[in-house]
Write a structure and sequence with these properties.
Elements: H1 2-23, H2 27-46
Length: 47
């Protein structure tokens, strides 16, 4: 049950991220946001 919840949450957040990226017209800002969120997510998950 926990695995289904985790996968569902990840898919939901990916969909939200894709929706936000549709509204950001500047690719550079999108890449910077992606890098910052990946670093933040890694630090929160692993520490």
């Amino acid at each position: 049950m926990q695995t289904r919840h985790t996968i569902g949450c990840a898919l939901f957040l990916i969909a939200i991220g894709m929706l936000i990226m549709m509204f950001i017209s500047n690719v550079l800002i999108g890449v910077i946001i992606i890098i910052l969120l990946l670093i933040l997510g890694y630090n929160l998950y692993c520490w």
